[in-house]
Specification:
- By secondary structure, the protein is mainly alpha-helical.
- The protein is elongated, with a radius of gyration of 20 Å.
Amino acid sequence: MQGRIEGEKRDYITGINAAKREGREEGAKANAIANAKNLLLETDLPPEKIARCCNLPLEQVLALKEELEREAVLVTK
């Protein structure tokens, strides 16, 4: 009985730690995307440099750039 309770407690703590880790990773990715968008909007840095600095794939930065360009066109119409 005691062993089962200890095992359940350990599984619970492992699950909580995994959820915290996942939340931190998602937050870091969201922050990197926000930083990349700001750099695309506020600087003339090339997408390759932004990708390296924000630790994002170049393809994702290029997609963000296209998204921002589309939004700018919609705003100006």
